[in-house]
Amino acid sequence: MKITLVLPILLSLAVTALLARDLQKKPASPTPAQPPATVPVEPEPVRYSMADCHLHLVDFLQRTDGAPAALRAMKKSGVTDAVVSGMPVVKQWSESEPQQPQYYLEDDARCYWYSATDMLVAREIQALPELERKHFHPIICGFNGADRNAVDHVRRMIEWNPGFWQGIGEVMTRHDDLSALTYGETPQANNDSLHRIYELAAELDLPVFVHSNASSVWKREPIYLHEFEEAVMTHPKTKFVWCHAGISRRVDVPTLVQEIDRMLATYSNLSIDISWVLFDTYLVKDGKPVAEWLALFEKYPARFIIGSDKVGRFHDYPPVMQRYYLLLDAMKPETAKRIAHDNMLAILPKQGATLKPAITPEIRLSVPVLTR
Predict the structure, then answer these.
(1) What is the pTM of this model?
(2) Where do the domains of the chain lie?
(3) How do residues 271-318 score in pLDDT, each as one tens digit?
């Protein structure tokens, strides 16, 4: 009888010991607030001097490897300058989700607008030594483009950091999955809220970088193109950059080259950012540059700019920028030089934005007086 009682106890203790040993062998899971460690990717030998027109200094949780890490990655890649912004939305960690999402597509939780992103960028850049700050060109993005108060946020950022900001964007308007996950109405490039920002940008000589999808994930016709085109047409003194040429991960417009050709011929205030998914889905097929895009680059050599579209993490920055070598090698040398570097710097203002003294009183006087 005693043996019968002892055996189950001994067996239970043995199983517990085995489980404990197995758990000790397994590496600890990373804490939710910290992503897994990443291994730096070694760059190719530098063959082109480049400028990055599209670098998010923080990710969708407003975290970053830091401006010093970004600068180290840029130098390894042959990138002399970068237009840097925050991220205008934060991915919510819902109560129903056991793990913190690291990217906006990881679960069905919503994203919310986050104006503090601009101050995070300002803090990172301003903490650098002066000689290092010159490599970064910060732009304002922390606003909801469907909110008529948005222009006040832009003014406030310039008021708080005079001479610092050099542009506005990435302005998030139609953005397929991200728009579907973000709280509130979807901003459109021709919103009245954004018209006010475009006017201010023209006044201060600030370029505006706009993400505005040309179509939806269900259509192949450019059904939303008129929204962005109306903005460019209505504000001829504003310098516009069309982020990713109106393409997102699941947007496919077969007539995109023809539409870009028409728009560049019509609007002298428009430039095209060829970063992100555009490279793999349109510009390169079977490891070779697409001929009709190369022809477009040669036709408008001063109107295209390149970028990484990295978000807060920079360990794999070099291959993202140096993949453009495939395109640049296929261009005329002067065209390659302009698209790789010169065009982006030509868009930027000669100095950071400063509000004119007369503007601040007007803002305060514009507040309506409540009467009985």
Answers:
(1) 0.85
(2) 50-365
(3) 999 999 999 999 999 999 999 999 999 999 999 999 999 999 999 999
CATH fold, domain 50-365, is TIM Barrel (3.20.20)
SS3 for the chain is CHHHHHHHHHHHHHHHHHHHHHHHHCCCCCCCCCCCCCCCCCCCCCCCCEEEEEEECCCCCCCCCCHHHHHHHHHHHCEEEEEEECCCEEECCCCCCCCCCCCCCCCCCCEEECCCHHHHHHHHHHCCCHHHHCCEEECECCCCCCCCCHHHHHHHHHHHCCCCCCCEEEEECCCHHHHHHECCCCCCCCCHHHHHHHHHHHHHCCCEEEECCCCCCCCCCCCCHHHHHHHHHHCCCCCEEEHHHHCCCCCCCCCHHHHHHHHHHHCCCEEEECCCCHHHHHHEECCEECHHHHHHHHHCCCCEECCCCCECCCCCHHHHHHCCHHHHCCCCHHHHHHHHHHHHHHHCCCCCCCCCCCHHHHHHHCCCCCCC
CA–CA dist 181, 107 (Å, integer): 10
- For residue range 227-254, what is the model confidence (pLDDT) as tens digits? 999 999 999 999 999 999 999 988 999 9
